[in-house]
Design a protein that fits this description.
mainly alpha
């Protein structure tokens, strides 16, 4: 396998593992509740945790620091807004976990996050 392709795939894998950690054990109930309110502190903290995680993953890539910080900031901004839109659509439609469309919204949200990493 080409070295650059292998590096790219390992970076994507690292970002996906970061996503699991940041959206799983590092995410609190208050963060989930704040994500539907623009600029609430815990929603912003959730995005900041993703930024830090992205910096950690990309730090081992050998990319220039300015590029790492720019990509991490972009990841945080995109992550924040993807979550914000999903949370508000779910609220507006009053979907609950027992509703099929809730799961479509959740899986679309997660897919968009992972597409960000490929981008």
């Amino acid at each position: 396998m080409d070295g650059q392709l292998q590096t790219a795939l390992l970076m994507i894998l690292g970002l996906q593992l970061k996503h699991i950690i940041c959206d799983g054990p590092l995410q609190t109930l208050q963060m989930v509740q704040d994500k539907s309110h623009y600029c609430k502190p815990q929603g912003l903290l959730h995005a900041a945790i993703h930024i830090v995680g992205t910096v950690v993953v990309l730090a081992v890539s050998g990319l220039p620091l300015a590029l790492i910080l720019g990509l991490a900031a972009l990841d945080g901004v995109l992550h924040y807004h993807i979550d914000f839109v999903k949370e508000n659509v779910v609220k507006l439609k009053r979907w609950k976990t027992a509703d099929g469309p809730f799961w479509w919204a959740l899986t679309t949200d997660q897919a968009l996050h992972h597409m960000t990493y490929v981008g």
